[in-house]
């Protein structure tokens, strides 16, 4: 099976394999190839430039004809259907809130039997609620905990799912935002949570400063833990209301991240206040399919015009489907 891969000398093969594992881009369904001199490490997706920079010198991005590894049992083999779940660290999160207890227990058992990386299986008892955006969970099987360490793009995030909101579904989006940031930029993450945007940006060493704000004291606790865990220095963690903190940091931001899709529109005045002339707001919203962008763009424009500023829309995109006929969207708007 032809697949894109990293070709590297055997002496450097193990360090390269560890790097690919840390970025979760090593395709474990294929057998690592080799010849007399080189190893060929199969990739599960196109690597980002910053990921390639982390590899040992002397590698080559090429194609190779790989052999399939012997297929291990998967949950579908035991259940007869493919269950919907997210993996956060070593915790499996069942997302179907309508599962009956017996079916949930069967799924949990199948996950623990077939996925050795999963140590605990939980399901939400409530939707995301309250100003801190958290959910209540039930541990169905495995270790009785909701705290874990999640790895993503070479970063580690310690999080307790019951104390601070986190989703792995935005990993690609977080990497996309990184591509907008230039060397020496100042970034303000208005709703930072445990730091998945802020720490990825800070660890890239492109921003001169990342200011990470959140109102949830538990989220800020884990944010600070993750700053230490990832050994990043160019980041400031602040427990506070983004509206009040915007007054302190007015006009400093080259980028303002507004990842609070259900209510980011309520903070647009503050985001504009934070943004220097020519700075960019990364605005997230939940919108209906018949009005994906225009109403949100108008809200951004109105917030800018209140203080005599204008906007230029640089990009608008659908991030993912959120619910029937509703989408999580992102708009990049330059504030002039």
UniProtKB/TrEMBL annotation:
Family matches, as CDD domains: AdoMet_MTases (cd02440)
GO-annotated biological processes: tRNA N1-guanine methylation
Entry's Gene Ontology molecular function annotations: tRNA methyltransferase activity
PROSITE patterns tied to this protein: SAM_MT_TRM5_TYW2
InterPro entries in the record: MeTrfase_TRM5/TYW2 (IPR030382), SAM-dependent_MTases_sf (IPR029063), TRM5-TYW2-like_MTfase (IPR056743), TRM5/TYW2-like_N (IPR056744), Trm5a/b_N (IPR040601)
Keywords: Cytoplasm, Methyltransferase, S-adenosyl-L-methionine, Transferase, tRNA processing
Highest taxon above the source species: Archaea
UniProt-recorded name of the protein: tRNA (Guanine37-N1)-methyltransferase
Organism: Methanosarcina horonobensis HB-1 = JCM 15518
């Amino acid at each position: 099976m032809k697949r894109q891969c990293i070709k590297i000398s055997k002496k450097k093969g193990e360090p390269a394999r560890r790097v690919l594992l840390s970025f979760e881009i090593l395709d474990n369904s294929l057998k690592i190839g080799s010849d007399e001199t080189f190893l060929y490490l199969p990739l599960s997706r196109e690597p980002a430039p910053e990921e390639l920079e982390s590899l040992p010198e002397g590698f080559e991005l090429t194609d190779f004809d790989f052999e399939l590894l012997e297929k291990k049992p998967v949950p579908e083999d035991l259940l007869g259907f493919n269950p919907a779940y997210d993996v956060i660290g070593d915790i499996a999160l069942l997302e179907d809130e309508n599962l009956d207890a017996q079916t949930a227990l069967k799924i949990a058992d199948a996950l623990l039997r077939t996925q050795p990386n999963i140590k605990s299986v939980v399901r939400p008892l409530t939707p995301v609620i309250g100003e801190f955006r958290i959910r209540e969970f039930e541990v169905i099987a495995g270790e009785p905990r909701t705290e874990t360490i999640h790895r993503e793009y070479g970063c580690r995030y310690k999080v307790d799912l019951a104390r601070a909101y986190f989703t792995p579904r935005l990993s690609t989006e977080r990497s996309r935002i990184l591509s907008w940031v230039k060397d020496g930029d100042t970034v303000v993450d208005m709703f930072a949570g445990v730091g998945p945007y802020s720490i990825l940006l800070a660890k890239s060493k492109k921003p001169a400063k990342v200011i990470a704000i959140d109102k949830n004291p538990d989220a800020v606790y884990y944010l600070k833990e993750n700053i230490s865990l990832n050994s990043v220095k160019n980041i400031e963690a602040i427990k506070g209301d983004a509206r009040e903190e915007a007054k302190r940091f007015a006009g400093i931001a080259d980028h303002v991240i507004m990842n609070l899709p259900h209510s980011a529109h309520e903070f647009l005045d503050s985001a504009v206040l934070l943004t220097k002339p020519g700075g960019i707001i990364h605005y997230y919203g939940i919108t209906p399919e018949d009005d994906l962008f225009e109403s949100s763009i108008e809200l951004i424009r109105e917030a800018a015009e209140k203080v005599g500023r204008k906007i230029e829309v640089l990009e608008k995109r659908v991030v993912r489907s959120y619910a029937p006929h509703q989408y999580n969207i992102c708009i990049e708007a330059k504030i002039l």
